[in-house]
Amino acid sequence: MTGHIFIALAAALICVLLIRLLQRIMLTPVKPGRSSRQYVYIAVKGREPALENHVNGLLWLNDNGVLRCRIIIAGMDLDEETRFVARSLQRDHRCITFIENGEAPEWIRTEN
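Above: the chain sequence. Below: its structure as tokens.
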């Protein structure tokens, strides 16, 4: 009986390790060149209830080292809820810049 438990635990551990290995192979990091930068530009118009979910997915990729980039959220005529979410995301994460109605952030002018 104890032997069956150990065999089942070993099989489960091997399955978990194989899944982690496949995950690493499938998520190949995107690396920029020496003189290039990576940006993800999200254009939002009006109401966008899934903005936070989209950005959280990009942040997950950023935190895991798969896609190191700055995230630019460009809003046009946003409703109050979407504007609040975008500003909150910018406040909570240094890699996010929120642009509203065509304004350009200072770091774009200084880095380019």
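The domain at 34-104 is CATH 3.40.50.2000 (Rossmann fold).
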